[in-house]
Amino acid sequence: MSSDAPADKRPVVLSGIQPSGRLTIGNYLGAIRNWLPLNADYDTHYMLVDLHAISVRQDPAERLERCYEFIALYLACGLDPDKNVLFVQSHVPAHSQLAWVLNCYTQYGELSRMTQFKDKAAKHADNVNAGLFCYPVLMAADILLYDARKVPVGDDQRQHLELTRTIAQRFNRSHGETFVVPETMTPPIGARIMGLQTPEAKMSKSEDAETNAVYLLDEPKRIERKIKRAVTDMDGAIRFDQENKPGVSNLMSILAACTGDSFETIERDYDGGGYGNFKKAVADAVIATLEPVQQRYAEIRGDEAALREVLRDGAAKANARAAATIERVHHALGFIPA
Ligand code: TRP
């Protein structure tokens, strides 16, 4: 290990979200909110993965707006920059540097098997660029740069995490212990939020119909309308059964995540009262949960200078750690020290 390795000896946690689309209650209840307590036991790093987002085309002005919005929302959700390293991927050049090295330790066949690549390639058939193909390698670089031990991600990223482990182990076998081999950190039960219109699939912040997701900045009226229209079923029972009642189960997950109530409590309180009554309770709980976030967002978003100051500080910390890893990797590869 490099002599200028950071003094913080807590294991590193790292995660990131792409600034595509708009943040949803799925991102909040399923990810960001679960990140909040982790800094008690881990040296936590959360980033905005803007380099990942360019594998799909987006208008630059809109991207810039989204990036500020995401960072302001991270803070509004309670991520404290004094307790977490908050940064933007493109502010740390080592991500791109390490991604190239790892590209040379990743097989074409492995990347061809990634289901997210296959999905995105089908969705964006006119732009199947090399970045889309190599996306998981950049993600591996994100993780390995910081010696992350635990990576909180949803099910859809498990395959990428597995590949990250494979790449790390392969490099370590060739060059000696260079990388920490990371593990997936699974979110708590019930924290996986599905689409309101398509409860069989994860609520997505991009590519979805507006009515499928509740966005963190949606107004109360809009939230109520979306939840009222959420897909349910015909039998009228409030019962958690993901297979046969995915819509109702998803609404129960949302309510449980907002109020902290168990599924048993929810069944007892709402079964027999009809879906209208139940949906009203879900909407009220979501609105109450988002209210403080929206309030803080309104206070924070306007001051871009302050947001950039937070990011500069985060980037300085991230760069220090990442540079030490690059030095280790270059040494392992037999490059002349710079
Ligand atoms: N690929 C992740 C997603 O689409 C985002 C991501 C990029 C990420 N780099 C990461 C997540 C590193 C965790 C760690 O959701």
What does this structure look like?
The chain has a five-stranded parallel beta sheet, with helices on both faces. The mean pLDDT is 95. Strand 4, helix 8 and strand 5 (183-185) form a beta-alpha-beta unit. It is an alpha/beta fold. It is built from 13 helices and five strands. It has two domains: 12-191 and 303-333, 3-Layer(aba) Sandwich (Rossmann fold); 210-298, Tyrosyl-Transfer RNA Synthetase, CATH 1.10.240.10. The protein has helices spanning 25-35, 50-53, 60-76, 94-103, 108-112, 115-123, 130-145, 158-175, 220-228, 246-259, 263-270, 275-301, 304-333, and strands spanning 12-17, 43-48, 85-88, 148-152, 183-185. Bound molecules: tryptophan. Residues 14-16, 18, 49, 52, 139, 142-143, 151, 153, 157, 160 line the site of tryptophan.
Name the CATH architecture of the largest domain.
Answer: 3-Layer(aba) Sandwich
CATH topology of the largest domain: Rossmann fold
Secondary-structure-based class equals: alpha/beta
Adjacency order of strands in the biggest sheet: 3-2-1-4-5
The whole-number mean of residue pLDDT values reads 95
Shape: globular
| C-alpha end-to-end distance | 18 Å
SSE string, helices as H and strands as E: EHEHHEHHHHEHEHHHHH
How many β-strand runs?
5
Report the radius of gyration as a whole number of Å. 21 Å
The CATH class label of the largest domain is: Alpha Beta
Q: Percent helix among the residues?
A: 40-55%
Overall tally of domains: 2
Bound molecules: tryptophan
Name of the CATH homologous superfamily of the largest domain? HUPs
The major β-sheet equals: 5 strands, parallel
Strand content: 5-15%
